[in-house]
Design goal:
By secondary structure, the protein is mostly beta strands. It has a domain at 5-25 and 34-48. The chain is built from no helices and four strands. A four-stranded antiparallel β-sheet has the order 1-2-3-4, with no helix packed on it. The structure holds zinc ion. Zinc ion is lined by residues 10, 12-13, 17, 38, 40-41, 43. Zinc ion binds at residues 10, 12-13, 17, 38, 40-41, 43.
């Protein structure tokens, strides 16, 4: 199986943890929200995906 994991800040663990991407919307809308589940504490949290364009100087 191939689960998508990302290192994200977990507010419950108060640390960066490995989190499984449990829900990924198929529609690429402006503000996508993804649901991650922490592999350490098992809590699920909604986080916004990073926008493809980096915060850049114009
Ligand atoms: Zn956690």
């Amino acid at each position: 199986m191939d689960q998508d994991t990302e290192h994200r800040w977990c507010k419950y663990c108060m640390a960066k943890t490995k989190q499984i991407l449990v829900f990924l919307p198929e529609m690429a809308t402006y503000k996508r929200r993804r649901q991650y589940q922490c592999t350490i504490c098992g809590k699920k949290s909604w986080l916004q995906g990073r926008r493809p364009s980096a915060e850049s100087v114009y």
